Q: What sequence folds into this?
């Protein structure tokens, strides 16, 4: 008998809760606790992986009302196409990260409470799944807050370290600033309609909102969700919080927690607010381009591998927003077919980013597991010591650099096409010019990302090990490899057959824009296609990654045959690296700092590099005994945007210390005065 | 179908066979302007033959990345050659890719070559990789902008579509936007093919080299593969330059006469570009690495003027 989708949904959420409880209860037996915790998480993800695509392919929606209520609001879940898509995204990464965790969490046995990690890990996935399934704003905010708090506890999991606590503090402050904006936005909606309506009912009511009110809500949700997604300049918590958390959690945070903000943004703008003025899209496009460029530039300067990856999340959120922004522009123009391309590009990249960023964070975790360091300057030569981790990390690096035939390219191609649509649209010269300029910005982003991952992969995995830690590294346990391998094969699969995901997106665009994604007769799985406006007709452009891959393989085979058949020598000789006659050692190698130096200098206006050189002499000025070099970049946003505010509040707080004399009588009189004032005003 | 396949194979073969000759012609032209005799125009072929006969040496520190890179590099160039319209507007695989894919195929090749540069652990390779990725990063937007301007005019990023729209536009397409975009792309071509004033293809002098630095560890057959691939990349970029902006003479149909005429016109056009490139190389000094961004920024702004003029003057 077939399992009903409703029960599968309940099973999914239930097994996460059960996994959380069991993992915590069994904390005295860490091995069993780990097994239980991650088995339930895997099971839940597996059921999500069945549920999401099944609902999307059968174009069904679910309404689940649980027989309980919180604060008078019934626990009601709606799984419409957009939710089903995000359940799929969460489950794909949830499954891989959970399998990875079997091995990874063992490193914490004896050092940290693994039961607690399992508890929060399961609750974290639970809150994200519940969040995207929430039917109304109240539940949405409730699970949003649970997600924020649980992720905070995960960030500060290794709280013995001062830096981790500090990162956690910045995270929780920033995330609550974001939530504050959301609460205001939802209160305005509540005020206009008079109840915590379902999202679907809000959509009808919002048509009666005044344009100004709509724009106010739009700005508020942009700021609120933008903080969570990590748009520049609200990104400062990201590169601090992600490295602090355990790697399986960083993968989830970067891969899917940021995406819940994208979900919320799409839900409110496309689902509730509907058509808006042209500048909405323009604003999102500019935010997207700035975040993409600055994200990747700061990533280039980062040598903590997880910090580097965190900055790349900022970059990829920017790329996602480029697709969504162009969709918003076309929605306000009424060209829903073109909006479909932008929205598909954004959502496709959302999925792809979850897959390859998850893979890279798991890879970083594996490297940390093997070398006990996150500083890439101490690594090197790991490809020979950890061949599979290296191979999977390479696939992740190629995917994130948007290089074919992997999935990052497929969704960036769609994004380029939506920008081409801006260039040809009948929306005035301003938007037409914006299209190619944004395309150039996206090209710059892609090229910088490639530079960054040549640096990351090259310094971490190639040449000679730079420290004893890297020298002694060994391949990680098999479960960790399986977790990474799963994501790596998806990177390849979605890159070669993008229509797998694009077909899943068809009901999503149909429900939000009433346009399905493109189908191309019987050959659609071979290609990705995009459309643009040419005068009055729609013109199509398509590419076929499958055939490109086939040609590439064929050419490589041909080259290989020529290579092996021709010439006098059949074998290659293994010998020393040519080094002007000196034996090669690891400290002659290029480091990550030296690798990124040309870019640091070319973009010095943005980085504002600083350097300090101290010399000690035996005999001044010719014989130096020691040179100390310290280089860095100025944290622009922290210095100009956050520090002045921080100082202002500190000053303000200092002013209030006058009230705090320490005498309890005085405090009691404060309470008395407040009471009297309240009694006077709140009659 | 068969006819299209044959034409596609012919175009690829033409690119592969002609690419080393073009390198030779550029060298000869440069020698002429420097009042040297210079090597014969066929010297690149002799070089390739010589490399094939030599033993390949691979560093003991290098991984499999170093060994697969020449294959991946050459295979991606060949794939790009199958997509770009050369002597005929239509080719067998023109539906497979578009200009975005071409740019990213170049990126695939570059990605692996840069990794290979780091693989042996030598500082020369690292220096080459670091500089190559930095120069590539700033040349990429300048590369994309003029091509995207042309794509917007044609309404598609498909190369056949762009070439056909320029042909169908007649002389009316020769607008300020068109010419500005051409100039912008020409400057980028200098950087992408590693020529003076950006990089010097004739030297192994450690302070100036970019591209040669990455290839320094390669020898024998590996070097042969990379050398021919680099020639092919150069020819492909010239092909994009002439066929997108001045496609006249290209065969629109698959008639034998049209194909022969198309081939002759194609060879003539890319040779002219090659000679201009040689003249540029002899009349400029190599700039400092950190002055290269100014050059490419200039190219970007020329492309931007082209783009703006296209929409502001509508022509």
A:
């Amino acid at each position: 008998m077939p399992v009903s989708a409703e029960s599968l949904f309940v099973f999914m959420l239930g097994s996460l809760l059960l996994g959380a409880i069991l993992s915590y209860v069994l904390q005295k037996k860490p091995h069993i606790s780990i097994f239980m915790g991650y088995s339930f998480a895997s099971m839940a993800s597996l059921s999500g992986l069945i549920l999401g695509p099944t609902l999307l392919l059968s174009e069904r929606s679910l309404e689940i009302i649980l027989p309980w209520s919180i604060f008078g609001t019934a626990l009601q879940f709606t799984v419409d196409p957009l939710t089903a898509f995000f359940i799929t995204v969460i489950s794909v990464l949830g499954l891989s990260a959970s399998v990875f965790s079997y091995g990874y969490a063992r490193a914490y046995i004896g050092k940290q409470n693994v039961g607690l990690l399992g508890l929060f890990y399961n609750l974290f996935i639970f809150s994200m799944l519940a969040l995207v399934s929430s039917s109304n704003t109240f539940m949405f905010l409730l699970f949003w807050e649970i997600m924020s708090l649980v992720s905070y506890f995960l960030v500060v999991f290794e709280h013995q370290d001062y830096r981790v606590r500090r990162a956690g503090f910045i995270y929780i402050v920033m995330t609550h600033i974001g939530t504050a904006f959301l609460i205001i936005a939802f209160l305005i909606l509540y005020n206009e309609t008079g109840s915590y309506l379902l999202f679907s009912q809000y959509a009808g009511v919002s048509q009666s909102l005044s344009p100004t009110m709509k724009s106010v809500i739009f700005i508020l949700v942009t700021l609120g969700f933008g903080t969570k997604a990590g748009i520049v300049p609200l990104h400062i918590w990201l590169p601090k919080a992600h490295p602090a958390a355990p790697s399986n959690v960083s993968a989830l945070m970067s891969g899917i927690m940021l995406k819940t903000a994208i979900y919320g943004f799409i839900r409110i703008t496309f689902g509730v607010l509907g058509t808006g003025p042209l500048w909405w899209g323009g604003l999102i496009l500019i935010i997207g381009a700035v975040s993409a460029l600055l994200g990747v530039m700061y990533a280039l300067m980062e040598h903590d591998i997880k910090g580097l990856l965190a900055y790349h999340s900022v970059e990829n959120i920017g790329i996602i927003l480029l697709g969504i922004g162009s969709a918003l522009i076309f929605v306000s123009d009424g060209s829903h077919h073109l909006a479909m391309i932008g929205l598909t590009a954004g959502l496709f990249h959302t999925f792809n980013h979850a897959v390859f960023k998850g893979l890279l964070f798991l890879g970083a975790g594996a490297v940390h597991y093997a070398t006990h360091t996150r500083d890439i300057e101490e690594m090197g030569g790991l490809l020979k010591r950890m061949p599979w981790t290296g191979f999977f990390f390479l696939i992740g690096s190629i995917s994130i650099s948007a290089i074919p035939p992997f999935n990052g390219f497929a969704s960036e191609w769609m994004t380029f096409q939506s920008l081409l649509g801006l260039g040809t649209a009948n929306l005035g010269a301003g938007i037409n010019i914006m299209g190619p300029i944004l395309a150039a910005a996206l090209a710059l982003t892609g090229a910088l990302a490639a530079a960054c991952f040549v640096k990351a992969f090259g310094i971490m995995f190639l040449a000679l090990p730079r420290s004893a830690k890297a020298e002694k590294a060994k391949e990680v346990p098999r479960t960790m490899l399986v977790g990474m391998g799963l994501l790596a094969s998806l990177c390849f699969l979605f890159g070669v057959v993008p229509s797998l995901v694009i077909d899943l997106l068809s009901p999503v665009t149909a429900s939000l824009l009433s346009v399905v994604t493109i189908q191309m007769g019987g050959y659609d799985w071979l290609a990705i296609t995009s459309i643009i406006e040419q005068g009055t007709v729609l013109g199509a452009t398509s590419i076929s990654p499958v055939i490109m891959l086939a040609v590439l393989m064929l050419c490589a085979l041909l080259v290989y045959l020529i290579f092996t058949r021709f010439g006098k020598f059949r074998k290659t000789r293994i010998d020393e690296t040519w080094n002007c006659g000196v034996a090669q050692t690891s400290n002659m190698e290029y480091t990550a700092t030296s690798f990124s130096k040309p870019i640091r200098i070319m973009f010095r206006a943005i980085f504002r590099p600083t350097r300090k050189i101290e010399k000690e002499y035996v005999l001044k000025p010719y014989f130096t005994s020691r040179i100390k070099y310290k280089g860095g970049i100025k944290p622009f946003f922290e210095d100009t945007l956050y520090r002045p505010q921080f100082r202002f509040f500190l000053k303000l707080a200092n002013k209030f210390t006058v009230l705090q004399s320490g005498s309890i009588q005085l405090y009691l009189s404060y309470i008395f005065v407040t009471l009297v004032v309240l009694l006077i005003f709140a009659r | 179908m068969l006819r299209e396949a044959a034409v596609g194979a012919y175009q690829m073969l033409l690119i592969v066979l002609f690419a080393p000759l073009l390198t030779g012609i550029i060298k000869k032209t440069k020698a002429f302007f420097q009042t040297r005799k210079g090597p014969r125009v066929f010297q690149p072929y002799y070089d390739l033959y010589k490399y094939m006969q030599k033993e390949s040496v691979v560093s003991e520190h290098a991984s499999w990345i170093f060994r697969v890179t020449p294959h991946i590099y050459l295979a991606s160039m060949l794939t790009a050659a199958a997509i770009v319209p050369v002597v005929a507007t239509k080719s067998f695989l023109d539906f497979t890719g578009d200009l975005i894919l071409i740019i990213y195929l170049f990126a695939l090749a570059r990605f692996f070559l840069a990794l290979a540069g780091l693989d042996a652990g030598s500082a020369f390779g690292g220096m080459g990789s670091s500089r190559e990725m930095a120069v590539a990063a700033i040349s990429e937007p300048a590369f994309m902008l003029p091509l995207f301007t042309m794509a917007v005019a044609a309404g598609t990023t498909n190369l056949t579509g762009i070439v056909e729209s320029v042909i169908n536009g007649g002389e009316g397409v020769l607008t300020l936007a068109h010419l500005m975009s051409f100039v912008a792309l020409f400057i980028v071509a200098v950087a992408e093919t590693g020529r003076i004033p950006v990089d010097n293809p004739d030297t192994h002098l450690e302070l100036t080299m970019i591209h040669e630095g990455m290839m320094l560890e390669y020898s024998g057959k590996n070097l042969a593969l990379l050398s021919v691939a680099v020639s092919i990349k150069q020819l492909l970029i010239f092909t994009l330059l002439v066929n997108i902006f001045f496609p006249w003479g290209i065969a629109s149909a698959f008639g034998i006469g049209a194909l022969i005429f198309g081939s002759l016109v194609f060879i003539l056009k890319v040779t002219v570009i090659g000679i201009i490139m040689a003249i540029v190389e002899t009349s400029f000094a190599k700039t400092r690495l950190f002055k290269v961004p100014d050059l490419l920024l200039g190219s970007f702004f020329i492309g931007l003027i082209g783009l703006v003029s296209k929409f502001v003057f509508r022509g």
Notes: Strands of chain A lie at 62-70, 73-79, 528-534, 537-543, 572-575, 609-619, 623-633. The mean pLDDT of chain A is 89. Residues 352 and 407 of chain A are 6 Å apart (CA to CA). Chain A touches chain B through 88 residues (CB under 8 Å).
